[in-house]
Design goal:
heterodimer, A: mainly beta, seven-stranded mixed sheet, four-stranded antiparallel sheet, B: mainly beta
Chain lengths: 111, 116
């Protein structure tokens, strides 16, 4: 039982490049979330999903897209990376109402 | 949307001293409240949660928090700080948006420094 895993752990991009972050959970959770963490700002919700095939915008969705084709996976895409997207990205999953289980994070730097 | 306010982005305590990290929430309905801890270069881990049962909630590593509705507070305490408690702590509230979907709002975090 691996919990929540994230791939990759680190990435450096140049402005304008694209990439996809993968989040996988093996707990059969319905809800999955993508957050970004920046110093002094806590965690801010980018997008979330309440089940397979469904996604919705969070607090800071601009510049990101997501997909949830399989229940266990939640992908976060950056179509054209910008320096403002330099951050640490966390994925989390949760049952109906309860604690969120977090992945270890992806540290992204956009030059 | 609900909000969470954590007073003090940095708190320093001596080893063995009382730890008090403050959290106030805004919620028009009984909330679900959580405290998470984040160690350097790691994800967040659950410390404790309040889900409308007992108002005094005990968590891992000797931490506890008391839900006070009249003060809309959920402060985190530990009687005696250990060096291993040095980390960043986040208060969070669960709420439902207009579509009925569960959302979580996190506070901005409090970094705890423990001085030997």
């Amino acid at each position: 039982n691996a919990g929540v895993t994230q791939t990759p752990k680190f990435r450096v991009l140049k402005t304008g490049q694209s990439m996809t972050l993968l989040c996988a959970q093996d707990m059969n959770h319905e809800y999955m979330y993508w957050y970004r963490q920046d110093p002094g700002m806590g965690l801010r919700l980018i997008h979330y999903s309440v089940g397979e095939g469904t996604t919705a915008k969070g607090e800071v969705p601009d510049g990101y897209n997501v997909s949830r084709l399989k229940k266990q996976n939640f992908l976060l895409g950056l179509e054209s990376a910008a320096p403002s997207q330099t951050s640490v990205y966390f994925c989390a999953s949760v049952r109906r109402v309860g604690e969120q289980f977090f992945g270890p994070g992806t540290r992204l730097t956009v030059l | 949307a609900q909000s969470v306010t954590q007073l003090g982005s940095h708190v320093s305590v001596s080893e063995g001293a009382l730890v008090l990290l403050r959290c106030n929430y805004s919620s028009s309905v009984p909330p679900y409240l959580f405290w998470y801890v984040q160690y350097p270069n790691q994800g967040l881990q659950l410390l404790l949660k309040y889900t409308s049962a007992a108002t005094l909630v005990k968590g891992i590593n000797g931490f506890e928090a008391e839900f006070k509705k009249s003060e809309t507070s959920f402060h985190l305490t530990k009687p005696s700080a250990h060096m291993s408690d040095a980390a960043e702590y986040f208060c969070a509230v669960i709420w439902r948006d207009s579509g009925g979907y569960q959302k979580v709002t996190f506070g901005t975090g409090t970094k705890l420094q423990v001085i030997p």
